[in-house]
Amino acid sequence: MDGAAGFDGLRSAEVPVVVSLHATKVLGVGEGGFIASTEVGFLEGVRQRSNFGFRGNRTAEVTSTNAKMSEYNAAVGLAGLDNWSASRLKWLLSATKLRAALDKIPMVRFQPGWGLTWVSSTCVVRLNPKMRNHVDDVFKDRGVSTRNWWGIGCHAEVAFKDMRRSDLPNTAGWAENSVGLPYYPDLSHQDVEDVASALMAAAFRVEKGSDAS
Ligand SMILES: *Cc1c(COP(=O)(O)O)cnc(C)c1O
Q1: Most buried by CB count within 10 Å: which residue of 132, 148, 164, 165?
Q2: Which residue, by CA, sits nearest to atom 5 of ligand 1?
Q3: Together in a domain, 115 and 199
Q4: Are residues 141 and 69 in the same domain?
């Protein structure tokens, strides 16, 4: 499972979860990541296939690669772990500022628990569909960046769209109606105010009914 952004939220992993430690994540090592699982045999297989297919000796037993984390990246990660509780608080503080400023806009919904019980390095909020139509223009006019982090949803990408699947109403709903807002440690009061006032302007356009899309 893709839990790339889930370093702080991961609690248990019955399904193997891949967590990214890329520089853009809350705990970054540069390039790298890890796999979490409760299946010890599965993890041994992963370790073997990421280390030339060796298992206890120097015989390449299975198809494999060298996917070990470099010593340098591992050292950066260890330093990051030493500092993790302080840096996690900084992410939480920025999230709290955003939550407080946006609380008064009922058309904006945070991911459950985001910035309260877990942090990630992006802030993706779900908007009322009508409001979503206005956000890109309003933010662009004001010079505030947004990101459509989840695109159209993985299931709708060219490489996957013809694959068999069940209905994915939640995935589709989040893909269509979410937006990534500016968010980083040390988010200033002014940054937060700019985001809040842009969202208010988009909400105002919905209320005026200027739904020109
Ligand atoms: C960051 C991220 C990735 C990519 O992780 P890499 O370590 O750069 O490969 C994939 N999926 C999600 C959801 C992510 O947040």
Answers
A1: 132
A2: 20
A3: yes
A4: no
Domain boundary among 82, 103, 129: 82
- Boundaries of domain holding 105: 84-208
The model's pTM: 0.91
Pair 111, 122: CB distance under 8 Å: no
Task: Name the residue at shortest CA distance from atom 9 of ligand 1.
Answer: 20
Count CA within 13 A, CB hemisphere, residue 91.
22
Counting atoms of ligand 1 from 1, which one is nearest the CA of 20?
7
Instruction: Tell me the average pLDDT of the chain.
Output: 94
- Residues forming beta bridges with residue 20, ordered by sequence position: 33
Cα(146)–Cα(113) distance, integer angstroms:
21
Please give the tally of structural domains in the chain: 2
CATH of the domain at 104: 3.90.1150.10
With a 6 Å cutoff on the Cβ, whether 33 touches ligand 1 is yes
Contacts for 65-69: CB closer than 8 Å, 24+ residues apart: 69/29, 69/32
Query: What distance in Å separates the CA atoms of residue 170 and residue 123, rounded to the nearest whole number?
Result: 18
120: nearest Cα among 38, 10, 32: 10
CA atoms within 13 A on the CB side of 172: 7
CA distances from 8 to 51, 172, 183 (A): 27, 25, 16
pLDDT tens column, 62-89:
999 999 999 999 999 999 999 999 999 9
Q: Does 94 share its domain with 133?
A: yes
Does one domain contain both 194 and 102? yes
29 CB less than 6 Å from ligand 1? no
